[in-house]
Amino acid sequence: MSSLSSQLWHKLVGMLPGEINDSEAGWLLSPQGHMPLMNGRRARIIVNRVRLVACLFGVLTPLWIVVDLLALPWRLSLQLAVLRLIASAAFFLLYRHYRASATLMQAWAGMACLFAIPSLFYVISHLLLLNHNLEGISAAIGTGYAFLPFVLLAGLAIFPLSLAECIGFAVPALSAHLLGGMLEWTTVDWPSFWGSFWLQVLIAGVSALACTSQLAFMIALVQQAVRDPLTGAFSRRSGEEVLELQATLALRCQSPLCVAFIDIDHFKSINDKFGHHVGDQALKGLAERVGGELRKGDVLVRWGGEEFLLLLPNTTSAQAMRALARLRRCGLGMRPDGEPITASIGVAEWFEDGSYDWRQLLKLADARMYQAKQNGRNRLVGRNVEHHAWLEEEPLLQSV
User: Fold this and answer.
1) Where does the signal peptide begin and end (predicted)?
2) 71 with 182, same domain?
3) Which residue among 197, 226, 255 closes a domain?
4) Model confidence over 177-206: pLDDT tens digits?
5) Shared domain check, 170 and 258
6) How many structural domains does the chain have?
7) Which of 171, 201, 226 is the last residue of a domain?
8) 51 has a pLDDT exceeding 90
9) What is the CATH number of the domain that holds 296?
10) Does residue 248 belong to any structural domain of this protein?
């Protein structure tokens, strides 16, 4: 059974050529494992759409009061009018106090509030309508309230969600319909009730397909936006976003954060003698070698030209220096003339260097990288006063 489901899943993923690959397909099922940048951008989209829908519902919900006053019994229409005004106020509060700087967890909370307001409205209005025997046009207007769960489930389609998230938000809307049936247990037309419920499940399924399709498209766009097309490393813009995020987390947890600027030595001579295509291959090879040595959570960024930035969260300066020295000993690739590729590297760690702003940390690592170039290239320069014995083992490693 698991093999059959796996084959079916790969077939479905295969219907999205050029959008996502097998390693990214799991992101359509669950938000677990999404890149922090992906989560941040998706959270902003969800928050913006929650605010948009909340604003529209806040405006449109009270407009139906006029119809209720004209078509329903006076007492019932007043009760529903009060309920609509309360719901409208709740929508406006959500719109007003919800901001686009939210995290993914806050985005989920906003969606939960957005769906909870009409779900509660449906249950309470259903209770009010049960106390009246409506006929004619009044019955038609009252029946319209039963379609609110359908609207909720169809509204899921505007959000980029994984399948698990879709199920999580669809279940409360489906539960509201089931609760409505329980409230009129003795009088409900059960064949019609279950027919409506099945239709809601189908709408939820279509919405889930729309949500995951949006998510797949967003994954493809984010991957293209955050990755350097030549080397596969993060682009400079996305690297800055990751560094800002890592700095926020490190400051909150009081954990070390290390960055290293890597500049390939004499790279211009490769382009001049052998052409830019050969130079591109050298850049790709270096990115592959460095990327293959990274831990989960480390980030390689192509900063520009032959410069790379390595982000090492939860890493002290001494640990970073050891890792980079080991990386240099393993090699960064070969030049077209058969000589090994070397690099000048500057390392900075914000607690040890007292640079508690990520921009200052970048400037410090960049300055040390230039110092490495000025001192003869092919060396590491960083602040490390506690490992002199180890530093002596690596003659090209300097302490400042």
Assistant:
1) none
2) yes
3) 226
4) 777 777 666 666 777 778 888 888 999 999
5) no
6) 2
7) 226
8) yes
9) 3.30.70.270
10) yes
Residue 174: closest CA among 140, 199, 144, 206:
199
Same domain, 285 and 324: yes
Which residue range(s) make up the domain with 83?
2-226
In angstroms, rounded to a whole number, what is the distance separating the alpha carbons of residues 40 and 49?
Answer: 14
Q: Is residue 64 part of a domain?
A: yes
Q: When comparing pLDDT for 280 and 398, which is higher?
A: 280
Q: Is the same domain home to 70 and 214?
A: yes
Helix or strand or coil: residue 240? Answer: helix
Q: What is the pLDDT confidence band of residue 4, given thresholds at 50, 70 and 90? A: very low
CA distance 314 to 247: 10
Same domain, 212 and 295: no
Spatial CB neighbours of 266, under 8 Å, sequence gap ≥ 6: 377
Is residue 122 domain-shared with residue 35, that is, in the same domain?
yes
Integer CA distances (angstroms), 266 to 276, 336, 343, in order: 14, 12, 9
> One-letter amino acid identity for 18?
G
- How many Cβ atoms are within 10 Å of 9's Cβ, its own excluded? 15
327-383 per-position pLDDT tens digit = 888 788 888 888 888 899 999 998 888 877 888 999 999 999 998 888 888 888 887
CA distance 97 to 118: 18
61-118 residue pLDDT tens:
999 999 888 888 889 999 999 999 999 999 999 998 887 566 888 899 999 999 999 9
Q: Are 47 and 106 in contact (CB under 8 A)?
A: yes
**Are residues 245 and 36 in contact, defined by beta-carbon separation less than 8 angstroms?**
yes
